[in-house]
Amino acid sequence: MQFSKSTDYALHALVHLGHSERCNNVGIKELSSALGVSESYLSKIMSKLRQDGIVRAVPGVNGGYELARPADQISFLDVIQVIEGRQQLFECSNSSSRQHRLLAEEGAAGRDQKRPGKNECLVEKVMNGAEQHLHQYLQEHTIQSVLDEAFKRCSHEVNKK
Amino acid sequence: MQFSKSTDYALHALVHLGHSERCNNVGIKELSSALGVSESYLSKIMSKLRQDGIVRAVPGVNGGYELARPADQISFLDVIQVIEGRQQLFECSNSSSRQHRLLAEEGAAGRDQKRPGKNECLVEKVMNGAEQHLHQYLQEHTIQSVLDEAFKRCSHEVNKK
DNA sequence: TTATTATGGATACTATAGGTCCATATTAAT
DNA sequence: ATTAATATGGACCTATAGTATCCATAATAA
Ligand code: SF4
Ligand code: SF4
Question: How many CA atoms does the CB half-sphere of A100 hold within 13 Å?
Answer without folding.
Answer: 14
